[in-house]
Amino acid sequence: MLNNYFLLARKVRRFLGENTKPVLSVTDFTHASAQIITITRFFYLFVTFYIYSSSSSILKFGQKIPQDPLWPIAILGEEVFVGHGASLFIFSFVTALAASILPASLLFRAATFLSLFFITAFNNSFGSISHSMHFVVFVSFLFIFLPNQIKNNNYPTRIDRLSAIAVFWWIQSILLLSYTLAGTLKVLSTGTGLFVTDGLMRTVLTRAIPNGGSPLAFEQIVSNNSLVTQFFYLGNIYIQLISIFVLFRPNLHKFYGCVLIMFHFGTFILLQIKFTPHIIIWGLFFVMSPLAPKSFSLLGTLKALPIVGLTFKPFGSNTKEPLMNEHTAYLVYDGECPFCTNYTHMLNVKDKIKDFRLINARDGGEIVEKIKAIPFDINEGMVLVYGDDYYFGSDALHMMSLLSTGSGFWGTLNKYMFKSPTVAKVVYPFMRFGRNMTLKLIGVKKLDYDS
């Protein structure tokens, strides 16, 4: 099931036009899951610090009765914390600290969520609601579903690593979706007024009224430079609207995380709205994102931006470099599949690459074990391994066409038909369906993939 989940995510990324490696390398995959453990520890350390810094308010829980209790407090009873403020503080502090030390412990992760959940609910049960901690509570809830085993500072099995990355991806998705919805609501509520040149000035001054008219010099700058500030206002809307697209473009993670951190600094400077927890969250889950590429390209990042990136397309080249012949290429296929076997035997790539080897996945071996460690199932298609790059399914078909010499009928058909990645993507699902049906008809069992 997790394999299908990652395949779906990859398809969405491709549909949105991202041109990235089709499969994480074994090194990247292993590093990503290990980094998630580090991020988890830092998250619980932040929660520990938050509870410590909120000690005075938590200790007073037993001295006040909620005026407008939220449903968690209403269910437990409005006086549930009376006389228990100190106990709640000690419990929440110890469990959060323990979770940072032992992130594999389901008990400590669940206890931290419950304490955060009720502390946040209680703090917002007095007639007004602050949204600053809502996402922290949500993250603590999703962290409950992290794997419960850690060995050598990493998750020991492939399924555990897949699960950890899936949880991390869901956290990113909800955060980004919430910002996109916020931007959408602003557009719907503002309408044509969105393009009025004093939009940001009106927002700042409206916020300044309940604040007692802050004397910040920034408000003077905003009021005297409406055209410049309107540019930043529209930029704010743009940043929020495109948030969900960042989910499927990992090369934007670090850049976007930094932009949103600056965005929240800006909301504090101009509007005096504090979202300190969100700054921490953006730092942990995007600036430190284990799914982001190791190298950073400013031009590549700008090109990846929705709509705005189109203006940067003429700069640089998006053409894929041909494969060099310095590495051994491995094509891993199911030897029990007649289609796969015939396809591999008709290939002719010797003139294009130094060393090309066919590997039957059912025979096992080092390369097969490496493929089993990444989030794609050999049962769903052949895999081309070249250096640190892994090409799966339609991508493998496309890359093999680029390597083909084009000799013979099949070689010519393969070279020119699948030279187009679009054609390969369209045709491959039908080829896979025919393969799966054939294996069922001849009674061949699937590879024992997770063994």
Automatic annotation (TrEMBL):
The keyword Transmembrane applies. The keyword Transmembrane applies. The chain crosses the membrane at residues 42-61, 81-99, 132-150, 162-182, 231-248, 255-273. One of its GO terms (molecular function) is protein-disulfide reductase activity. Keywords: Membrane, Transmembrane, Transmembrane helix. InterPro entries: DCC1-like. This is DUF393 domain-containing protein.
